[in-house]
Design brief:
- The complex is a heterodimer of chains A (115) and B (111).
- Chain A is mainly β and 115 residues long.
- Helix content of chain A is 0%, strand content 55%.
- Chain B is 0% helix and 49% strand.
- Chain B is built from no helices and nine strands.
- Chain B is mainly beta and 111 residues long.
- In chain B, the strands form two sheets. In chain B, strands 1-9-8-3-4 form a five-stranded mixed beta sheet, with no helix packed on it. In chain B, strands 2-7-6-5 form a four-stranded antiparallel beta sheet, with no helix packed on it.
- The chains are: A mainly beta (115), B mainly beta (111).
- At the A-B interface, strand 4, strand 5, strand 9 and strand 10 of A face strand 3, strand 4 and strand 8 of B.
Chain lengths: 115, 111
């Protein structure tokens, strides 16, 4: 089984709808991250969490919110989706392992389309 | 955060050694250099990390000169399956400030 899972894998929604993307991990890591990727733009950090009680904004948090329900779960919400939020979304985790906290483990991604 | 600069794209033939250089002139004393690989429609994958001199693993080698203002990722004898985007990142290993992924270097391996 995959260590970092994301649901759904693909989602098409309409402008103005609320949508939640979920991430679960079995690696026992404290730190979790949400990124979005647009073609040719690399990955941009939306939110990150260092533990259950810690939530931090990344470089592009406007229009998004997150919830860290447990050590293993980190959800990303779009309260009112808009077309320019169409992107590939990745969840990642990191722990104090061989690569330190700089070694992140990524989920398979969620492809979101907002019409 | 130390900013990194790397080539946008590179081409190589199968079997050749590929070297991707990354500049990070403002690297801090406690920063490490980390490289990730990303295949299309997949999340990035950590491949190697170093602080100074040379680090080697089963995937790649990382060369870091004494001044640490640049680093070179070396992929030996590339194959078509090494076609991917490679990201160079710089940050403290404590991870208190998350890494910043730039646009990376798109490596295309040609048969």
């Amino acid at each position: 089984d995959a260590d970092v899972t994301q649901t759904p894998r693909n989602r098409i929604t309409k402008t103005g709808k609320r949508i939640m993307l979920e991430c679960s991990q079995t690696k026992g890591h404290d730190r979790m991250y949400w990124y979005r990727q647009d073609p040719g733009l690399g990955l941009r950090l939306i939110y990150y969490s260092f533990d259950v009680k810690d939530i931090n904004k990344g470089e592009i948090s406007d229009g998004y919110s997150v919830s860290r329900q447990a050590q293993a779960k980190f959800s990303l919400s779009l309260e009112s989706a808009i077309p320019n939020q169409t992107a590939l979304y990745f969840c990642a985790t990191s722990g104090n392992g061989g690569g330190g906290y700089n070694e992140q483990f990524f989920g398979p991604g969620t492809r979101l389309t907002v019409l | 955060l130390a900013k990194t600069t790397q080539p946008i794209s590179m081409d190589s033939y199968e079997g050749q050694e590929v070297n991707i250089t990354c500049s990070h002139n403002n690297i801090a004393t406690n920063d490490y250099i980390t490289w990730y690989q990303q295949f299309p429609s997949q999340g990035p994958r950590f491949i190697i990390q170093g602080y100074k001199t040379k680090v080697t693993n089963e995937v790649a080698s990382l060369f870091i000169p004494a001044d640490r203002k640049s680093s070179t990722l070396s992929l030996p004898r590339v194959s078509l399956s090494d076609t991917a985007v490679y990201y160079c990142l710089v940050g403290a290993n404590s991870g208190n400030t998350p890494l910043v992924f730039g646009k990376g270097t798109r490596l295309s391996v040609i048969a």
